[in-house]
Amino acid sequence: MTVSLHHIVIDARDLSAQARFWAQVLNWKILSASEREVVVGADETASVGICFMPATDQKVVKNRLHLDLTPGPDGRDAEVERILALGARRVDIGQSGTESWTVLADPEGNEFCILRPKKTLIA
Question: Which DSSP state fits 23?
């Protein structure tokens, strides 16, 4: 028997704000909301969603896990600008400047990357 990925769980201080941000970034919708969790996904039958759970502490160190996002047809630079306008910010985690990705952080400081367009999971 095998398991499959159901949710990526992200601790958040403001569940609703984080859910709205990520729903806009991914063009998903809020599927369920309560004071204990908010779930976003492409739709109710999507294979994977993001679940935001309450946390009282602030994020203070670099993530041990982050999301890599592939840009749409407008390209990486356009997506970076769109996501910055939604409330993300650029962050420096030691990049050299020659990477094929751009590192951003969501409104609560969780790092994620916008990659160069690609159609495969391997380099």
Answer: H
CATH architecture assignment, domain 1-56? Roll (3.10)
Letter string b/e over residues 78-89, b meaning 16 or more CB atoms within 10 A of that residue's CB: ebbebbeeebbe
CATH topology of domain 65-123: 3.30.720
The domain spans of the chain are 1-56, 65-123
| 0.85 surpassed by pTM | yes
Is the Cβ–Cβ distance between 69 and 25 less than 8 Å? yes
**In this predicted model, what pLDDT tens digit does every residue of 33-84 receive, in sequence order?**
999 999 999 999 999 999 999 999 988 888 899 999 999 889 999 999 999 9
Dist CA 30 CA 40 (whole Å): 4
Tokens 């407008």: give the residue.
74
